[in-house]
Amino acid sequence: MSPAGASIVVTLDIGGSAAKASAYDVARRACAGQASRAYPAAGRDADPGMFDPGAWWLAAVGALRALWQRLDQPAGRCLGITVSAIRIPFVLVGAGGEAVMPGLLNKDRRAQAHVGEARAPLGADGLYRLTGHWPAPEFGLPKLLWARANHPQAWHRTRTVLQLHDWFIYRLSGTVASERSSAAMSQMLDVRAGTWARGLLAELGLPAGLLPELRPAGAPAGGLLRAVADATGFAAGTPVHVGGGDTHMSALSAAAGSGIPVVVAGTTAPTVLAVPAAASACPSDASFPLLVSDHVVAGQRVLETNAGATGAIAASLDDLGARARGSLREALAARGVCLADGEPGEPLTVLAGNPFFGPDGWAASPPPTVIGLRDSARGGDVYRAALYGVCLAICATLGCLLRRSGAVAPFVAATGGMSRSRAWAQLLADVTGTPVHVRPLERISGRAGAVLVTGEDPSRRPPHEEETRVHEPDAAAGPLHDAGLARYQRLYRTAQLAASAKAQAQAQAQAEVSCAGPR
After folding, report:
1. How far is the CA of 73 from the CAs of 76, 173, 238, 259, in angstroms?
2. Which end of the chain is more exposed for a tag (fewer CB within 10 A), N or C?
């Protein structure tokens, strides 16, 4: 039980590169402070597609400790703690509560060989209708099948499969539980029934007993463990509440409301639309390929598309400044960016996001590519072209979301790190031809966690509503951007085909080496 006068809610946000802790003061209805800790740098021989759950937990403890020191408040002022986390990774947990092996990251595709196995019981259409997610190696089910096949000893030791959100709730409170918005991309949920897809799991030989009880977002999970309290400065027994998936929580913080698309412009760029649950009772041919999951808001579901690695690419290019010619090319190569010749007279283009959403669009991912780099170009030109590429990719995936959902958007809400840039937000409005509304991140960070912990009506307008930045599109530029999108899609498709051919050639070469055996 929290003491009288407690008003701070803490959200532990587990991202792909760092753990961030945000404090939201429900009395002032504003963010009260933030702190983050990056995960330890991987060693030279580390597997880039995997992560260490224990190391990520230590980073989270460090973020919580730094936040509490920054707040400089009595321990009892904390009303509750909750968790927001990236949604695909999971942790295999042993009998003693330990992680029995590293986890697989979101974009890792090593489970490609197990996609057919995941699809076999129901077929591609049946799997989508049941889980709201089409067959793809990025999602959790093929990854789990890969772990079982390739790490049999770790699988034998596994007693519980926890989504990343669940793992942090467990480490905070000792409670083993899962939550639907977070677990949806495990591809093991029946999205219509809101239960684990036990029939599918049985067909695949996956014991349903490995999966924890499902609880709604905001439900009490337990009290903060004494050891965690001692390590962070928070009071032992502070209520820990079930949280949700990071994209869902970000959309709730943006407070756009049902029927308004939200672009969560972070490392990747998901675009989500909250709709009444009754309006999306079961994924269908009409909604394909939209991803479907329960929202953290009761009675709502979320329809989703994603433009992939966007913010991550732009962030890698934002310090190029006045570099030119050889220096610029060397800097791009050092960042893993490819160079390609462009057609004479066509503008500089950076492929910084995937404009094709769905199984075919996800089948191959070309590397970040700069097309048509001339000697006269500077680093700043490349960065601006990357921002334009990001907006074009989001425009395409937003269009997919609106067409398939039948929604008409009076405006688009933008949140996430890229939304801090007025230039980017205005460019997004111009490219999409739709007003873009941005609420200040420093005011709304952690708001979703506070809504879940306190049970506040999520539709309640925050007092800083008047601070919303509104970016109106330049209607006269519409045809120019339409042509730019068509060109971007053509160039991206060409790069995808090249990436696919290269991957097939490498796979063939590896197969030939394996068949030849040692000499």
Report:
1. 8, 22, 14, 39
2. C
